[in-house]
Amino acid sequence: MNEYASLLSDAVLRHRARVAEHSARIEAELASKVKSEFIANMSHELRTPLNTVIGFSKLLSQHQQRRLPDKEIIEYATLISDAAGHLLSVINDILDISKMQSGKYTLDSHELNVGKILVASAESFRMLTTEARIKMQISIAPDLPAVRGDALKLKQVFTNILANAVKFTPADGIVSIESRRTGTNGVVILIRDSGLGMSAEEIEIAMTPFGQVDGGRSRWREGAGLGLPIAKALIELHGGRLEVRSTKGTGTDVAIVLPARDSVNAVSSTEMASDRGLSA
User: Fold this and answer.
1) Alpha-carbon torsion 72, 76, 77, 81, what sign?
2) What are the tens digits of pLDDT across the range 77-110?
3) How far is it, in rounded angstroms, from Cα 77 to Cα 125?
4) For residues 22, 26, 32 and 36, what is the CA-based torsion angle, rounded to 10 degrees?
5) What pTM was estimated for this model as a whole?
């Protein structure tokens, strides 16, 4: 009987060892895949605008050898500025997500008028939407209560979401922005577009750091796949929540709920990283 128990114990231990080895191998393969996808994506996102900066800067530096018309100089300088701005945005996003994962991200919280921040964020896209023939509708409730939060970070959230809405909405489409008071004296913000939309699987990808959803508008400005994850993380740091609802071919709705200023339960980035499995 003792011999049988010993054999059974050895078999169980060997089985557990095989299961642990198999799990470790799968985790290593997944980590390797994520790392490979990240490197491939970052290679594209960083090198493409950088090549633009280098290429057009070289053309401008040769102005003495080949006189350039003023129109071309302005065009090249604009392209360099655009590419450099995109490059800085990608780097800032990477730094933001890294700080959140390490638990070192902090908010400069004050009482603020979220309606004004929302309008300012929307107005920054006014020229782009006009050029793209996209109608922008803004509706801010007059009785909107003040909230506690970081004005710069909330503007970053609204800008990230609006950038996606404008990017994936075709000409003659609509992007609407609505804000109203909740029943608990908080604020709810709804940003809707009549764009390409996403399936449930694509929403899951879009909410994953560095996830890329092919929207049929491939271009180097499509971003690093951090806009929505950062927006969601920032809203959670404010004690609120962000939800995405979308239908393929119809459009996307993003709902942001911020709590009442006297009931904010802000979450530290360390707690958030732990809860969401973001820690390295």
Assistant:
1) positive
2) 999 998 888 788 778 877 777 777 667 677 888 8
3) 21
4) 150
5) 0.67
